[in-house]
Structure formats: structure tokens, C-alpha cells
UniProtKB/TrEMBL annotation:
Gene3D superfamilies: Fumarase/aspartase (C-terminal domain). It comes from the Bacteria. It comes from Yersinia enterocolitica W22703. This is Adenylosuccinate lyase. The keyword Lyase applies. One of its GO terms (molecular function) is lyase activity. Keywords: Lyase.
């Protein structure tokens, strides 16, 4: 998808729109930003404790 291409918000939105997912899931994915999505970071930190 991204090899040799610049990834921007519009491109990610188009990619998400192309997925065979329910609209609710597409909206959830589109709402994610680096500021509000931590992925597995929280769980990984907990594993270190």
C-alpha cells in the first residue's frame, strides 16, 4: 500500500474506506490519531512491571 508513496491523512481515509468493514469500524479507525491511539504500548509497559 505505501511502498514508495507518501502516506497522508487523505490517503489513509481512502484506504480505510476501501476496506470491507462495517461503517462503525471505519469511523473508529478514521478517528484514530497518534495523539489518541497508544496501541499495545500500555500493555507492554504493564508487562515490564
Amino acid at each position: 500500500m505505501t511502498r514508495g508513496k507518501r502516506v497522508d491523512a487523505a490517503g489513509m481515509q481512502a484506504f480505510i474506506d476501501s476496506l470491507a468493514l462495517p461503517e462503525a469500524e471505519k469511523n473508529r479507525l478514521k478517528a484514530m490519531t497518534p495523539a489518541n491511539y497508544l496501541g499495545r504500548a500500555t500493555a507492554m509497559v504493564d508487562e515490564l512491571k
